[in-house]
Design goal:
alpha/beta, Immunoglobulin-like, TIM Barrel, 3 domains, 8-stranded parallel barrel, 11 helices, 17% helix
Length: 832
């Protein structure tokens, strides 16, 4: 065999993309000036040289009377309180508790509490005894919070289903409804609906379901996460065993420019980023329950700009009438946020006024500190091999790991972070370093995984923690990618050269998505496949909807699609479910009765309609449905164990109706995902009505422990010719090969589950980047020889950071170098 030239390609760190990302975040990344004498950092807060902001005029208030029915009388020594929660600091971290007095009998209590007019109050009930006990819903899940809009003096009626640790014994009902734009009549997606201690988000039609509500009168609230619609509320009577319909119209809110100008304490380090943390989506609130009881993410908060006189300023378009709860911070809503002089958390409130003129808000941060403990300076020296686009984050563990916070760069691989507070509630605690907020994966090797973090204790004297990160977990100086210089056959303009982002989501990903898109673009890909999720909260009753903090919201997905299209990438949406365990276990445990199946098809219809509407409104070119998880719901459906799923006899008609509805909403290409091996045998009969097949390929290609590329290439060609080509020829539809192989030993010999493909440690196998690269090389060569294959996509790409782990992500691995070489040649951009 003739020896072919080998090209040695460096692992692509994409320095230019990284530098452009740094420039876009210049406020965050301005170099921090650390005085040599640390004692000068902590003088008493002095009166600023410029005039202080005027004292705010108190807002008018209205008294609300809360009447609550309990599941049982209180025990001796127990007291009932209404707990108003603070979603900016953290729901459980800064509550204000109001005692409630017994009213008519031992199971009914009430309290009258004044609140600012036009505010939106978030609250829940607590039992105070030896230990506080939280309320739970009828399924035993914690009540996140209830809501009430304060428009006038009013009475609010609530029913507590049960207390934590106690079973629910009452009767329940359901609420359903549709939320419409009062101006256009269109349904509004992702409106938060709260009633009876339950919460859900509307789908793209504006439709919602609330399950398991205790029978009785409940306060129902419809709330826009970004404040762009006026809040709606009404009393809703929940009847036992009944489905109560509700019709809601929301008026769009006008926008007004609000300029925040703030005076910060004189001991604030020069050049550090000051952020605005708030209760709206655009102010960093995720509306999800995150690590350590947090709800906000620092990198999602807007940053203020420094002024020449030392103040900071920020102008934002905010919706008229929105109740803005906010604070200034050097971290997030909890860490390094502003405090009152008595050490308590500061939480400011602004109801955006209706005005034609810009609104000016002037504030003064009294202190970043809380208590007598001195701030702690953390200095980290990181390896020179740290990717230039990476930001080093620090994460604290006072009672469990909280959300990571970006550190401040000093240059030359030196990073610092000054922790001011809240140190008054801490003694000893732990901390760790990671890259791009991905703590738990992209960690300092010294504190990775279950290893304890670095210890530190508060002190009355200044501390300077000088640390060295010797190595990062899953980041190594790997060998360059080797590309055999073959003749690459350029394909037609419709060839699909793509990258699919990993299924799964965390709110910390959002800040790094633009850089990930630049990295995909730098591979010369022409397609990006996004995998937005909805979560199966419960199988009975069936609850399937977006879960904030775990699934991307409509606005998150819109932002990603817009960024990809701005980078000249075509976009495909491949929506996925998120299960509490495995899909097989979930289906096996589901009731699968006739009524249950009717509900399942309704919720699946809402799921695909949501993503069809999202694709249509954002200009995404392709929608991909299907996948192994749907096998039990297809005509003649089977469970993973081979048993009959009990799918209704009219399943074929139901699927035809679903696909017809999708076609009516979305005019782009509609593909169906099938797995190989395994999925071809269960291909649905309606496949010939769709536009193509997205073949999920992870087939073993070797029987020996050390296969070479030629052997892998031959086996790939054999499988494609014997199994795939006849299938494609009979269908006469485009077929995209969507590839996922772990970078691990035995990657060529073993089949891996979807969960294993995204796990950093696959079945305990050692990391083997070359094994993954060899598999990609073999498949690229096989695709090159078969013109009937319409594209190749690399699946399971991890967007936020390079991880040279055992997962199937090619981000920062030699396999990515192969794509960088092959993709532009397939597309005719580059010739050999």
């Amino acid at each position: 065999m003739k020896k072919l030239p080998v090209l040695h390609l460096p692992i692509r760190t994409l320095a230019l993309a990284g530098l452009s990302f740094l420039l876009l975040n210049a406020c965050t990344l301005s170099l921090v000036n650390i005085p040599t004498n640390l004692s000068t950092l902590f003088p008493p807060t002095a009166t600023p040289a410029y005039p202080l902001p005027p004292t705010a005029t108190p807002q008018p208030s209205a008294a609300l009377t809360f009447q609550v029915a309990l599941p049982a009388p209180l025990a001796a020594g127990e007291n009932l309180v209404l707990s108003v929660v603070d979603e900016v600091t953290g729901l459980g971290l800064n509550p204000v508790n109001y005692p409630m007095q017994q009213s008519q009998d031992a199971e009914h209590y009430m309290a009258s509490i004044p609140f600012a007019l036009n505010s939106v109050v978030k609250y829940r009930y607590l039992l105070q005894g030896a230990l506080p006990t939280a309320e739970v819903d009828s399924a035993g899940n914690p009540v996140r919070y209830r809501m009430v809009s304060v428009t006038s003096p009013a009475t609010v009626q609530d029913v507590v289903a049960a207390w934590s640790g106690s079973p629910f014994s009452g009767s329940t009902g359901r609420l359903t409804g549709q939320v419409l734009n009062a101006s256009s009549g269109a349904g509004i997606p992702d409106i938060l609906i709260a009633a009876g201690g339950e919460q859900t988000l509307t789908d793209s039609n504006g439709t919602f379901f609330l399950e398991g509500l205790p029978a009785g009168t409940e306060n129902l609230v419809a709330y826009a996460l970004d404040g762009m619609y006026q809040t709606f509320q009404q009393g809703a009577r929940v009847e036992a065993g009944q489905l109560t319909p509700v019709k809601i119209s929301l008026a769009p809110a006008a926008l007004v420019n609000v300029t925040f100008t703030v005076i910060v304490p004189q001991n604030t380090l020069q050049g550090v980023p000051v952020r605005l943390a708030g209760n709206l989506l655009q102010l960093g609130n995720t509306f999800g329950d995150l690590n350590g009881g947090m709800n906000t993410v620092a990198t999602r908060m807007p940053m203020l700009s420094p002024m020449p006189d030392g103040r900071y300023t920020l102008t934002l378009p905010l919706p008229v009438g929105a109740d803005i709860r906010y604070k200034y911070t050097l971290g997030d809503g909890f860490w390094n946020a502003e405090h009152e002089l008595d050490g308590s958390f500061t939480l400011r409130e602004l109801v955006v006024p209706a005005t034609q003129d810009p609104v000016q808000v002037q504030d003064l941060v009294h202190t970043w500190q809380a208590g007598p403990s001195s701030p702690i300076l953390f200095e980290a020296s990181v390896p020179a091999a740290t990717p230039v686009s990476d930001i080093v984050s620090i994460e604290f563990n006072p009672y469990g790991w909280t959300e990571p916070i970006p550190m401040w760069p000093r240059g030359n691989n030196q990073w610092v972070y000054q922790l001011y507070g809240p140190l008054n509630i801490l003694g000893g605690f732990e901390y760790r370093y990671c890259r791009n907020d991905q703590c738990g994966l992209a960690d300092d090797q010294a504190s990775a995984g279950g290893t304890p973090g670095r210890p530190v204790s508060t002190s009355l004297t200044a501390q300077d923690m000088q640390d060295t990160v010797n190595a990062w977990t899953w980041l190594q100086n790997s060998a360059s990618g080797n590309v055999v210089g073959l003749q690459v056959n350029a394909r037609s303009a419709g060839f699909f050269a793509g990258v699919e982002f990993q299924t799964g989501y965390d709110p910390t990903w959002q800040a790094w998505e633009p850089l990930a898109i630049q990295n995909v673009q730098a591979l010369h890909a022409n397609w990006l496949v996004l995998t937005p999720t909805w979560t199966y909260h419960s199988a009975s009753p069936l609850v399937f909807s977006p879960l904030p903090g775990h699934d991307p919201l409509w606005s998150d997905s819109t932002q990603m699609i817009t960024s990809a299209r701005a980078a000249n990438l075509s976009v495909a949406l491949f929506p996925q479910p998120a299960f509490p365990g495995t899909a097989a276990d979930w289906w096996s445990a589901a009731p699968r009765t006739a009524d249950w199946w009717a509900s399942w098809f309704d919720r699946y219809q809402a799921f695909v309609d949501y993503h069809a509407d999202l694709a249509a409104k954002t200009g995404a070119q392709t929608l991909i449905l299907g996948g192994d998880w749907l096998t039990p719901a297809l005509p003649g459906g089977r469970l993973a164990n081979g048993g009959d799923s009990g799918v209704p006899a009219d399943a074929a008609a139901r699927w035809a109706a679903i696909l017809a509805d999708v076609r009516g909403r979305y005019k782009g290409s509609l593909f169906w995902a099938l797995s190989y091996p395994g999925g071809l045998a269960s291909a649905p009969s309606f496949l010939n009505t769709l536009d193509g097949v997205y073949l999920l390929w992870s087939a073993p290609l070797a029987t020996t422990s050390q296969p070479n590329v030629d052997d892998l290439h031959a086996q790939a060609g054999k499988l494609l010719d014997s199994d795939i080509q006849p299938f494609q020829a009979s269908l006469q539809k485009p077929l995209i090969l969507a590839v996922a192989y772990p970078s691990a030993d035995a990657a060529a010999q073993t089949s891996f589950s979807s969960a294993e493909l995204v796990s950093p440690g696959v079945k305990g196998a050692a990391v083997n980047l070359s094994a993954q690269a060899d598999l990609y090389q073999a498949l690229l060569m096989a695709v090159n020889e078969r013109s009937w294959i319409s594209g190749l996509v690399s699946r399971a790409y991890y967007p936020p950071a390079v991880l040279q782990d055992a997962s199937a992500s090619v981000h920062g691995k030699p396999a990515a170098d192969l794509l960088w070489y092959w993709f532009p040649r397939f597309l005719g951009i580059t010739t050999p």
